[in-house]
């Protein structure tokens, strides 16, 4: 089973970007963590990052066409991109929204997610472990489907 882990703007800068909020681990560390987690769960995990909304939307369409489950950290797109929400609404497989920080505990503008309503569910606030939990959720959902 293939899973796409999609990351939005500024997430390539993990490690140097506001480490007090997002931690000291780098994007490469995140890629390794997701791949390792996938190996344990028997999932083939492909991790991508883009700062470009159009590219992100193309990846979401690709996942919908191929019935590929998605773990997505939409980063700032979370809070305002109706275009990304409309793309995610076309999903044909489980889709988990993840955040490293807990947006509900931060500035007011982060309290709204325009994508949460079209996700299977959301995991936020556990640092990079949010991705581990999201991949576990995807594995559970796939196992239920196959049962
Ligand atoms: C984030 C939270 C967003 O509010 C922010 O814009 C990000 C990262 C997180 O993972 O905590 O870029 O999605």
TrEMBL record:
Any Pfam family the entry gives: DHquinase_II
EC number(s) stated in the UniProt entry for this protein: 4.2.1.10
Domain of life: Bacteria
Catalytic activity reported: 3-dehydroquinate = 3-dehydroshikimate + H2O
Site for Transition state stabilizer, residues: 17
Active-site residues, Swiss-Prot/TrEMBL: 22, 99
EC main group: lyase
Annotated positions binding substrate: 73, 79, 86, 100-101, 110
Pathway per the UniProt entry: Metabolic intermediate biosynthesis; chorismate biosynthesis; chorismate from D-erythrose 4-phosphate and phosphoenolpyruvate: step 3/7
One of the GO BP terms on file: chorismate biosynthetic process
Keywords tagged on the record: Amino-acid biosynthesis, Aromatic amino acid biosynthesis, Lyase
GO MF annotations, alphabetized: 3-dehydroquinate dehydratase activity
SUPFAM superfamilies: Type II 3-dehydroquinate dehydratase
Assigned protein family: Belongs to the type-II 3-dehydroquinase family.
HAMAP family: AroQ
Biological role: Catalyzes a trans-dehydration via an enolate intermediate.
Subunit structure: Homododecamer.
Record protein name field: 3-dehydroquinate dehydratase
Annotated organism of origin: Actinomadura namibiensis
Gene field: aroQ
């Amino acid at each position: 089973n293939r899973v796409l882990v999609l990351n939005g703007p500024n997430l390539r800068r993990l490690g140097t970007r506001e480490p007090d909020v997002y931690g000291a681990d780098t994007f490469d560390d995140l890629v390794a963590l997701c791949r390792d987690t996938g190996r344990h769960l028997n999932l083939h995990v492909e991790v991508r990052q883009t700062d470009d909304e159009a590219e992100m939307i193309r990846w979401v369409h690709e996942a919908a066409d191929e019935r590929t489950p998605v773990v997505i950290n939409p980063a700032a797109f979370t809070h305002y991109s109706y275009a990304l929400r409309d793309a995610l609404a076309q999903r044909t497989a489980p889709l988990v929204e993840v955040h490293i920080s807990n947006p509900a505990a931060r500035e007011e503008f982060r309290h709204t997610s325009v994508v949460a309503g079209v996700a299977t569910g959301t995991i936020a606030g556990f640092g990079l472990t949010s991705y581990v939990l999201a991949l576990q959720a995807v594995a559970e959902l796939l196992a239920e489907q196959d049962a």
